[in-house]
Amino acid sequence: MVINSLSRFPRTQRGFTLIELAIVLVVIGLLIGGVLVGQSLIDSTKLSSQIGQFQQYDIAVTQFRNRYGQLPGDSNLLPSTGAAGNNNGIIDGANYGGASSTWGAPSEAGNFWRHLSASGSISETWGSATHNNVRAGIDAPNAKLGIKGSLIQGMTLQPTGNSFGGMSLTQEQSGNYWVLCFNATTLNAGFFCRDSRYGGALTAVQALALDTKMDDGVPNTGAVLAAGDAGNLPGGDYGVRCLTQDFSAYNTNPVSQNACCPVSSASTLCNLHLKMFSLAGGSQ
């Protein structure tokens, strides 16, 4: 009689029980939940840091104005590289989004951070922009929120004049602003906060969150205005990208509104503009 030798040994293989499978699924769920909560906390921290950065610099400019009765960059009391400030209340020469040689001069906006540094209003040390672009982390502070190359710049936006290319601001909307924008390269001389793909610093979701926290959540009203990139403000090139076609809302729906420019809520296509002194409690 032939005896199967394997029958002499007990079976050691068995499947998972329902309880074991349930425990594994619970652990996986907890891990996924922890990752999502962690990412949410990171996003919330970055948002708070960005608002804090705006507040810090808003207070610094308020102190500068109270001390000198002038605006940084526009001041004629502090050393400047190139064109000195004329103290007319306008931080001009940025020509945001338009071809200009004023950054190479540099303009008043090019001396903005140098004046804040020289006055001791901020602890960082910044020189003047002596070329046609302002570089994040070199000529101006890196923004706390946004893709690499995003920066914070102070400037005056006017309905007319050379401080903003192709804009459509009302008189009420014009004034001194903080601009959170993306400046990718210094290769395109004269183009500030604009690159070859007409990019922006933020996603539509990030821009909406900032606008909601600091203002009314509407991109074309209030103290916070948005542009899809360097172009018309409020708005952006083609009226698409980070805003809806009528500029009245942020385009968080990842559907293209124009065949030329595929739009996604995950794309970095928003630049934000915040009225100076709106966070420091002062006035224009």
Walkthrough of the structure:
Helix content is 25%, strand content 9%. It is built from 3 helices and 4 strands. Strands 1-2-4-3 form a 4-stranded antiparallel beta sheet, with helices on one face. The protein starts with 17 loop residues before the first helix and ends in a 9-residue tail after the last strand. Residues 95-104, 161-166, 186-190 and 256-261 have low confidence and may be disordered.
Features of the shown structure:
4-stranded antiparallel sheet, single chain, alpha+beta, 284 residues
What secondary-structure arrangement, pairings included, does this model have?
Layout: H1 18-68, H2 112-119, E1 150-157, E2 175-182, H3 204-214, E3 224-227, E4 271-275
Concise description?
With 284 residues, the chain is of the alpha+beta class. It has one domain. The chain is 25% helix and 9% strand.
The averaged pLDDT comes out at: 74
Q: How much strand?
A: 5-15%
Main sheet, how many strands, which sense, barrel?
Answer: 4 strands, antiparallel
Would you report the number of β strands?
Answer: 4
* Rg: 26 Å
In DSSP terms (H or I, runs of 4 or more residues), the helix count works out at 3
User: How are the strands of the biggest sheet laid out side by side?
Assistant: 1-2-4-3
